TrEMBL record, chains A, B:
The gene is rnz. This is Ribonuclease Z. Zinc phosphodiesterase, which displays some tRNA 3'-processing endonuclease activity. Probably involved in tRNA maturation, by removing a 3'-trailer from precursor tRNA. Keywords: Endonuclease, Hydrolase, Metal-binding, Nuclease, tRNA processing, Zinc. Coiled coil: none annotated. The active site is at 66 (proton acceptor). GO terms for molecular function: 3'-tRNA processing endoribonuclease activity; zinc ion binding. Zn(2+) 2 binds at residues 66-67, 211, 270. HAMAP family: RNase_Z_BN.
Length: 319, 319
């Protein structure tokens, strides 16, 4: 699994960081998925190998502009460059109203169908082509959601011991069973291929939070997760100085949750523009990292625009 | 007068060109004006000395997304960075509906008032702080407008011969008249300063067209203009191959109009992404230039993103 960060700033873009967007795909796959779509996401995409025509689904966490104002332009550009395949959008219901209003007032005409799924109605996991998608409601003033991606289609291998124990003789039949075909033996008995195909490994799971002041709301979604991507808009010192967290999380709150939950990998993003890149500045992005490390002993990253992360089969995340 | 091109692509952004936006200001002034605001305009602004807090007015030519989808994010960012001064927006009435729909569906809250003026209702020239603004309706399927900026506050000097002929004796009174003050002479007669202040030069005039398939609709607006900025989305060869001009202008049509009108400076912009930067490519951006030069013998430019043009007091445009 791969994660491309396309925007890592909170609220407003900076010269170094665009507003929120994250691309997810299976390693080197053409098909991909987009979580959030702040203004300028389509311009960021032009600087990656990702194609709008191979975008399988867009997931929006909430309706604030820094997470959705890039949606009309991205859909418009996909139309102008010839997309015809339907596109799934999973988002709070207000995003549907937003898109309908844009279409009504600006004459936006799409060349493809939108399969819109209101996340409020997502009771069962949604089977996307590469992932099973689940969602959890968060706390942020407007309806905000976190999404879990559990990979589908994990490689399987023949259960040789099982086949031998069941008396299925080694030969061409084994090849057909390995391809997922149910076969009938000479003695008339049916062999169900699923019974003799073992998953070679655990399906990986990635959780991406929306804006949220209560990380523990992701507790259930994070069970069995390999990676949590979550906003860390401020550190505690800045929240104390501002007198409000604006319904966002501090680095400490997210890191403490990830430590408590035993998550192996944590990626922080969505940093207030007040944090400067220069390590000597006040406040510096290093303050966020320092605060997170004080609470979390796992594999920690602070995302930058155009960072590419790879999650290995055994759950190790590397940049 | 200065022109900063912030976006010069038609329809969709490319790696080299963002979608439409043009900043205008008096030379080295802090106050500035924005014509059109395609997605990503606020990100382009971050790469210039322009400040959202000193933006005096936004003029939108028409409601197509590549000319207005950057508006919500720009207004949101101006709010988040503390703007309180009201902002004038002159635009087709549908832009008001677009902004109201965005505010209603995404909870966009602005910290400043919008003084919205529907361009359809603009009967008299509008006095902006630095320019008198006029508009003309164009032809593009949706309501599209061109804008003329005529500079205000041109430097004036005392009409010494006139003062002497009127019997106003040289002295401190001249200084007061020079500052625009009406003064009463010892003999009781009133001297109106405007009668004795001569403009040192002609007010410069800049015309910026919106998307438009009929350049001649700008004829009246272009009378006395120093510069015309107009879209040249295609050259004729591409229009013939496409079988349609999509209600845009060819380089030949705009250049021919500018030649006929005797305009000294012509800047073409809003190029279809099919035109490549590489001179050897087909079609190349050079095809646009070659076609325009075949029709126009004035001072011709093809705009690039981040080009800065200066118009001198005597009407010479340089990049």
């Amino acid at each position: 699994m791969e994660l491309f960060f396309l925007g890592t700033s909170a609220g407003v873009p900076t010269r170094a960081r665009n507003v929120a967007a994250l691309a997810i795909r299976k390693r080197n796959a053409k098909a991909w998925y987009l979580v959030d779509c702040g203004e300028g996401t389509q311009q960021q995409i032009l600087r990656t190998p990702l194609s709008l025509n191979r975008l399988e689904a867009i997931l929006i966490t909430h309706v604030h502009g820094d997470h959705c104002y890039g949606l009309p332009g991205l859909l418009s550009s996909a139309s102008m460059t010839g997309r015809e395949r339907p596109l799934t959008i999973v988002a709070p219901a207000r995003i549907r109203a937003f898109l309908e209003a844009i279409q009504a007032t600006t004459g936006l005409h799409l060349t493809f169908a939108i399969d819109f799924i209101a996340v409020e109605d997502l009771a069962e996991p949604l089977a996307l082509p590469d992932f099973a998608l689940e969602a959890a409601a968060l706390s942020h003033g407007v309806a905000s959601y976190g999404y879990a991606f559990t990979e589908r289609g994990v490689e399987r291998k023949l259960d040789i011991a099982g086949l031998e124990a069941a008396g299925v003789t080694r030969g061409p039949l084994w090849g057909r069973i390995a391809k997922g075909e149910d076969v009938t033996l000479d003695n008339g008995s049916l062999v169900i291929s699923d019974d003799f195909l073992l998953s070679q490994r655990r399906a990986r799971k990635l959780v991406v939070g929306g804006d949220n002041d209560t990380p523990a709301l992701l507790d259930e979604l994070c069970t069995g997760a390999d990676v949590l991507v979550h906003e860390a808009t401020y550190d505690r010192a800045v929240v104390e100085r501002l007198g409000t967290d604006n319904q966002h999380s501090t680095a400490a709150a997210v890191a403490s949750f990830a430590q408590h939950k035993g998550l192996a990998n944590l990626v922080l993003t969505h940093f207030s523009p007040r944090y400067q890149q220069d390590p000597g500045a006040t406040p510096s992005i290093d303050d966020i990292e320092y605060e997170a490390r004080s609470q979390y002993r796992g594999n920690l990253f602070l995302a930058n625009d155009f960072d590419l992360y790879r999650l290995s089969h055994d759950g190790v995340l590397t940049r």
